[in-house]
Amino acid sequence: MLLTLAGGALFFPGLFALCTWALRRSRPAWTDSDCLMISTRLVSSVQAVLATGSGIVVVLSSCSDVVNGS
């Protein structure tokens, strides 16, 4: 569990830093706030997709009746 937490604590800030750096290099006309806003939204989208995917895996693999929780 701690390994997963440590991985997420490194992955998401790293993704944010990488996106911000790439946007600043590829779009020099954009302001810093534009680059930060796009990077934040991209990281949030990735996190949402991963959370949805893990939820689907949990429901499909461990729940036979989602409504009653059994």
From TrEMBL:
Q: Which domain of life is it from?
A: Eukaryota
Listed name of the protein: TLC domain containing 3A
